[in-house]
Amino acid sequence: MDLGRVARLxxxxxxxxxxxxxxxxxxxxxxxxxxxxxLAVAAGWAAAATGLLQWARRPAGRTGALLAAAGxxxxxxSWNTPAIGSPAGFAVGLVSYAAAPPLLAHAVLTFPxxxxxxxxxxxxxxxxxASTVLLGLLPALVFDPEAQGCARCPANPLxxxxxxxxxxxxxxxxxxxxxxxxxxxxxxxxxxxxxRTRALVNVKAPLAAxxxxxxxxxxxxxxxxxxxxxxxxxxxxxxxxxxxAVAAGIWWTVLRARQVxxxxxxxxxxxxxxxxxGTLRDxxxxxxxxPTLQLAYPRxxxxxxxxxxxxxxxxxxxxxxxxxxxxxxPGRSVAVLTHRAGLLADPALADEIAAGCLLVxxxxxxxxxxxxxxxxxxxxxxxxxxxxxxxxxxxxxxxxDVAQQQLAALLMFTGLARTRSASPVLERxxxxxxxxxxxxxxxxxxxxxxxxxxxxxxxAVESLAEHAPVRIVALPSARFRPAVETTAYFVxxxxxxxxxxxxxxxxxxxxxxxxxxxxxxxxxxxxDRIAVLDGQLSSTGPGQIRVELPCGS
Amino acid sequence: MRIVIADxxxxxxxxxxxxxxxxxxxxxxxxxxxxxxxxxxxxxxxDVAIIDIRMPPTHTDEGIVAAQLIRDxxxxxxxxxxxxxxxxxxxxxxxxxxxxxxAYLLKDRLSSVAVLADALQRITEGECVIDPTIVARLIAxxxxxxxxxxxxxxxxxxxxxxxxxxxxGISHRLHLSPKTVEAHIGSLLLKxxxxxxxxxxxxxxxxxxxxxxxxx
Lengths: 553, 216
What we know:
A: Rhopdopsin 7-helix transmembrane proteins; Heat Shock Protein 90; B: alpha/beta; Rossmann fold; Arc Repressor Mutant, subunit A; six-stranded parallel sheet
């Protein structure tokens, strides 16, 4: 059990006890009406209980502990009365009767989990010093109740001297300072709120308003104290209402978070019913009311991808009017939301979403990573296939530009030589050269038919039919992108059987090039080429092949 | 006969010039790319331009494009496209908009001055000449079309016509009398439906019909 938990558990009975003492004191003394006393004690209990619960809810933040302390000290204010009877209790009341307001202001300033700026620390420090030292501890050291004519007062165990003038001066100084720090803290609160984003303002505004009201009443209380020479119990009912309002302000923020959690829970139920990739983004966008919301997952190799694995650019910063909120699991960021600036300024909201959707997020992140890998693989396969195609074309060009041209020149000069002197050797050379030219031509068009690039698939297949046993039933006359034309051509060319005739029927339908082959031979290289283009290869019978390739419209 | 040669390979340009000069032709200009070719043809108006199918910048079918342009702009200049491609489609593209004075030959033919000289002669006479290897392939391929109505002998005659041979050439080749050849030609022109055209164009049209029937 950690120390914070022990402290929290101890505070519950303590706050109850102090409040009960207050009620008892009120019953004994004549000072206030019963209704006002019950209201004051109830407000103190509410503040203490709210603080303790907030402390348990967010142990890392200081708001809960500070608010619990403020509630307790609010209850202790009433002990600064002769009716307390006990010297120890009286001493506690003497020192602490003015300490609740700085604690409360401090609690509200740190809400939800914010470190204080330098100016805020100065304001809060001044308030603590004025309330607990100038009005609390120092006057208690020089206050002798008996000498000041308080016959019913218990002895003051803190008294080290009886210095009435110093006592009065300290009080006046503390009161004047109160007129300084209370408005100062109101200003600090307003400034803090003005610097926050709208979403956080929406959450925190009721809380801040209650705190401003409370501090305003405290300032007024100090001002009235100047007339009496000490900080009296003025405006206690008003201050009690304001204190209760601060507690209510905390509950308002809890309620908001609860709403998000309920929505998240609904989200999880919907997700379990429809877990398609991208569903989470759509549901979050609907829940938070931002249709431009993007959900991106970090890749282990760097960068971000969406649920389908496509790369996503994360842009934010000044001028983009967009903000980035990481969704965190303990110790790491699972996903990143980009959204309208201010939508998720309350860190609690993002934490609620992350906690509620963690499983789904993790699942989608893994799926996204997998999809991204698949996309990478497919792209790289397509690049390899394209590189192989362009290598084929280059090879065919080289064969043509170098070998075929030189062979043609050789043929020409041989012919020339033969016209000058007929010889059987030259005749034989010419025959061989013709043979070589023929074979080279067959080789070149087998590597890559120039017609395919020049005139397209139909022309190339028609030309193939002049050279090989191919019967054409139908061919689309349209041009397709090179990868599709090359794949379609080589599917057909490779399917030409050793014996018999290949029948080709190709049509373009619904953005797909559909090639039906009958009498096809085995085509070992073809399935990979088709897969690269996201195409399909199916067989409807022996020698019957259907190939479908996406080819645009 | 005045000739312009266009080929991006210097060895072939110079060799061809040597070959043609030896055979009694006059080479009046040589070009290494289509731009030079068009300039020379416009300046010199040669009888025939011999053009390599692959030329800069893309080395694909610049030669065919250039040949078509020359036939459009300079009807007095015939074109002979030399190619390594044994594809009837390139020949078809070369011939489809024209009525004659055009030839498509494989570069292998450069070994025979006689074939080359014959083709050049046919071109200046306004005929089309298609490489015999391509013609043989097309004849061998059976495909339903207008050629179905022709007899085997008529097809032989048509193939020789497509190779650019004269009636006399055909009669020598097939060991037939010139009269018989003329009868076959008359019959096949009738069957192909081109007998009503002017005399000069009949043979060209017959060849085009032959090419189209094998392509579509």
